[in-house]
Amino acid sequence: MAEKIGVLISEDKVAEKIREMADTINKDYAGKSVHIIGVLKGSIFFMCELAKKIEVPVTMDFMSVTSYGNDTKSSGVVRLIKDLDESIEGRDVILVEDIMDSGRTLSYLVKILKERKPASFRIITLLDKPDRRVVDLEPDMTGFVIPDRFVVGCGLDCAQKYRNLPYIGVIEE
Ligand code: IMP
Ligand code: MG
Fold first, then answer.
1. CATH 3.40.50.2020 at 11-146, yes or no
2. Is 101 a catalytic residue?
3. How far apart are the C-alpha atoms of 18 and 126, rounded to whole Å?
4. I want to staple 5 with a disulfide (CB 3.0 to 4.6 A). Which of 44, 100, 130, 169 is the partner?
């Protein structure tokens, strides 16, 4: 049976927010370059749209971790599947995530990346579900704070489906 997806945040609102976030980056990093690191696979849609609007020089790298199975519950275990291709020592790094939920994924990544001595380090996330946080960590920049609902689209999946939806949606019961 086909699931019905309701729109939580429209495509236009997402695009506008990404432009605002890029403007902030352009101001904060004026005269520098940024090395953006995407967490596969969820962050790539957000990361590409953001990168297109960044006007300082941009380089990109990717990591892959897993913390969820093919369902909507976190196992609580974060495992590194793909490490970065390049060193981040001395670079101005922005870690890009689709969503911060419990915060376990980001706190694991922050721990291993900060040990690699970047010149600066920030976390940017399109969505934040602060109600579900289990670690003491906040993103430096957030697109939208959302309630505790399972969302899809703009890179976010449900059992690997719906990443390509251009809006943030919720699966309706
Ligand atoms: P955390 O480690 O609990 O913060 O979870 C982060 C990861 O869980 C995200 O990068 C997503 O891949 C996934 N996730 C958390 N909430 C959602 C959701 O509402 N929809 C889809 N994926 C989610
Ligand atoms: Mg993710």
1. yes
2. yes
3. 8
4. 169
pLDDT of 28: 98
Residues 6+ positions from 67 with CB-CB distance below 8 Å: 74, 75, 76, 77, 78, 79, 104, 105
Would the CB of 67 count as within 6 Å of ligand 1? yes
Q: Taking the model in full, what pTM does it have?
A: 0.93
Domain ranges of the chain: 11-146
Distance CA 118, CA 97 (A): 18
Cα–Cα distance, 7 to 13 (Å, whole number) = 11
Ligand 1 pocket mutation pick from 101, 128, 145 by most atoms within 8 angstroms of CB? 101
Q: What is the pLDDT of residues 22-43, one digit of tens each?
A: 999 999 999 999 999 999 999 9
